[in-house]
Amino acid sequence: MTRTILEITGSEAQDFLQGLVTNDIRKLDQGLVYAAMLTPQGKYIADFFLVPHGDGILLDVDDSLSSQLLQRLTMYKLRADVTITQSTLQVSCGTGPAPEGALADPRHPALGWRLYGADGGDDGTDYEAIRVAHCIPASGIELTADTFILEAGFERLNGVDFKKGCYVGQEVTARMKHKTELRKGLATVTVDGAAPVGTQIVSNGKPAGTLFTQSDGKGIAYLRFDRADGPLQAGDATVFYVPG
Length: 244
Fold this sequence. Notes:
Shape: globular
Mean pLDDT: 95
CATH superfamily of the largest domain: Probable tRNA modification gtpase trme, domain 1
CATH class of the largest domain: Alpha Beta
CATH topology of the largest domain: Gyrase A, domain 2
Radius of gyration: 19 Å
Largest sheet: 6 strands, antiparallel
Order of helices and strands: EHEEEHEEEEEHHEEEEEE
Number of domains: 2
Strand order of the largest sheet: 11-12-13-10-15-14
Number of helices: 4
Structural class: alpha+beta
């Protein structure tokens, strides 16, 4: 787990973020806030945690996305009284007893806690198995530039707020919310065999999705639900989807 911690300060920091991210910044008084930043077309740029930190806000993002996210934040900052710097703090996480100052991961109780301080790392928890069991996508694996966050389960993961007002990409996200049902999305599947991350899933010779992270005979797959009946093939692996 390699993370970059940005610190956002200034008298307009909260208002600045409120107009950009998918979740409600006012929830910071309750702990960590999980959110994403989207393109105007509603597609994923980055997901991250927002962390209350004195008079400022920490932003905890996957290292591979930090440069792009910082560039985007700087572009939107304009003349706002906002300063964005890279923090020297690190993040540690675990699922055992939470140390003093740790905050609960808001995506799912099984993900345990996160702590921001001088040291980083984890307590040896098999996070990949937890992600697969609970269909929790990861930056750069299941979450890519083509992702729509509702198809990735962000509502279930407490990563989007539909009452907070406008943010970049909000119109597309709201329209998807009010569809009768999603026709595509991430789901946990049973996997007999193994296939590389990103292997195409086929149903009766037709593309039906993509298989991503796998653990303990299960996997996270992006599926076209209308083609996900019966056994599916992903390279040498056979995939089964049972609607939850």
